[in-house]
Design brief:
The structure holds two protein chains of two kinds. By secondary structure, chain A is mainly β. Chain A has no helices and eleven strands. Chain A has strands spanning 3-7, 10-14, 19-26, 30-38, 45-51, 56-59, 62-67, 72-77, 86-94, 101-103, 107-112. In chain A, the strands form two sheets. In chain A, strands 2, 4, 5, 9, 10 and 11 form a six-stranded mixed beta sheet that branches. A five-stranded antiparallel beta sheet of chain A has the order 1-3-8-7-6, with no helix packed on it. In chain A, 35% of the residues are buried. In chain B, the strands form two sheets. In chain B, strands 2, 4, 5, 6, 9, 10 and 11 form a seven-stranded mixed beta sheet that branches. In chain B, strands 1-3-8-7 form a four-stranded antiparallel beta sheet, with no helix packed on it. The chains are: A mainly beta, B mainly beta. The A-B interface holds A 31-32, 34, 36, 41-46, 49, 89, 91, 93-95, 98-101, 103-106 and B 4, 33, 41-45, 48, 55-56, 58, 91, 93, 98-99, 101-102, 104-107.
């Protein structure tokens, strides 16, 4: 069964600290993996996309990694800011089949002063 | 482009009433998705369309739910009759290609009393 598991479920960190969010998937055939950021009361917004051949991709203070062999991805946030408080959702796309996208349940990050 | 537009943003209704949620996708996008989000289950795919044709509606909870896409610029999700367990945030999203980046609307928060 195609699944995406995220950990931790929630996380609280101090402003300025770094953190890493995890995403494990059992999706096949794999097409790509995206991390979305969802602010409270808003719709999710794409942060980054990882394809099969990519190991690392950065978007400002956000760095995503992908290990296609172990089927794991991580999102590292550097020097966190209060505005990073949000839910981060891992979404994996399939290359075939009727349902092209599999969503994780997200990690709720709270950055406190 | 204004992005994906959903209405209403908030809806409070009584059990048994009909609810209609509306969505205008981004012009040029050929996929449209309806999702439901709750704290317990995260984002769940209800149905998606490709070029206005429903492709997969296996996520629609039961016959009380129906969705239409009469043209490329408009879609509706209808619940009749509504029940308290339908209370959730309903998101519409569109993309160019099924595995492309999803652009979400701001969501419609439904409360059924």
């Amino acid at each position: 069964k195609n699944q995406v598991e995220q950990s931790p479920q929630s996380l609280i960190i101090l402003e300025g600290k770094n953190c890493t969010l995890q995403c494990n998937y059992t999706v096949s055939p794999f097409s790509n993996l995206r991390w979305y950021k969802q602010d409270t009361g808003r719709g999710p917004v794409s942060l980054t996309i990882m394809t099969f051949s990519e190991n690392t991709k950065s978007n400002g203070r956000y760095t995503a990694t992908l290990d296609a062999d172990t089927k794991q991805s991580s999102l590292h946030i550097t020097a966190s800011q209060l505005s990073d408080s949000a839910s981060y959702i891992c979404v994996v796309s399939l290359n075939s089949g009727n349902t092209p996208l599999v969503f994780g349940k997200g990690t709720r990050l709270s950055v406190i002063a | 482009d204004a992005g994906v537009i959903q209405s209403p943003r908030h809806e409070v209704t009584e059990m048994g009433q009909e609810v209609t949620l509306r969505c205008k996708p981004i012009s040029g996008h050929d996929y449209l998705f309806w999702y439901r989000q709750t704290m317990m289950r995260g984002l769940e795919l209800l149905i998606y369309f490709n070029n206005n044709v429903p492709i997969d509606d296996s996520g629609m909870p039961e016959d009380r739910f129906s969705a239409k896409m009469p043209n490329a610029s408009f879609s509706t999700l209808k619940i009749q009759p509504s029940e308290p367990r339908d209370s959730a945030v309903y998101f519409c999203a569109s993309s160019f290609r099924g595995t492309g980046e999803l652009f979400f609307g701001e969501g419609s928060r439904l409360t059924v009393l």
